[in-house]
């Protein structure tokens, strides 16, 4: 656990003498904040959440049970450990306290050593839970994100794409996706090395994210290939967004931080639901094929099927923007 002085314990008691004693005892190891009634305690906790609360039960206005229940009902404060420090040590009060959400119960008068041990234990447990949450959040992030670029990964793409198709069917809405491949990226890697190649991919991902906004999202598809999903976009809107990405790329000097100042371009293929295809893999395949035709011909351009074709079979791109 970090330095104890990084932790704040809040004491809530309506008797000033009790507060003074607790501040003296606890203040040796921890930062201490105080309140003398439930209402002011809640206001202070919302503004400056402590790491642990020592809470009396019997107080004017709002008792400790209600303070605890209110704190546990709010997302911002529900994880703060609360210890009842009270003279109400009858069985009914103890049960009600645990039902309200306290983690421990200390009777008055208290033993200083016992109090400090219980406070330390709950702070350590709370700290461990917070660290575990961070680890779990990181693991959850990694399950759907590409670790190199920070964009979503293909696992997320396929899951979300199937759901997007179902929603679009029900709501009778269109959407588009574009397949993007960096032109001559092998030359960048061969010239500047793999580490700079990875840096360039991260910078390209930033270009993508700067060119779109939610609910649109980018996906690291593999190597130097990316997919961008555009919910509720028609083909014309998708072309406009793709041209924005293409234009921004051409205006950007990549690896400038490494002193390289590399200019890059990309080839794009666009597929739209439901005009071009109605299944996830068919949409991806078509966008990939259209992108490949662009890459094999002019590069640095956008390809898509004409609205009239109604085909998900590979055809010469009907839109070329050079």
Automatic annotation (TrEMBL):
Record-linked InterPro entries: CheY-like_superfamily, Diguanylate_Cyclase, GGDEF_dom, Nucleotide_cyclase, Rev_trsase/Diguanyl_cyclase, Sig_transdc_resp-reg_receiver
Primary enzyme class: transferase
The EC number(s) this enzyme carries: 2.7.7.65
GO terms for MF: diguanylate cyclase activity
Listed PROSITE patterns: GGDEF, RESPONSE_REGULATORY
Domain Response regulatory intervals: 8-123
NCBIfam families linked: GGDEF
The organism's place on the tree of life at top rank: Bacteria
Catalysis performed (reactions): 2 GTP = 3',3'-c-di-GMP + 2 diphosphate
Segments forming domain GGDEF: 173-307
Protein name: diguanylate cyclase
GO biological process, one term: cell adhesion involved in single-species biofilm formation
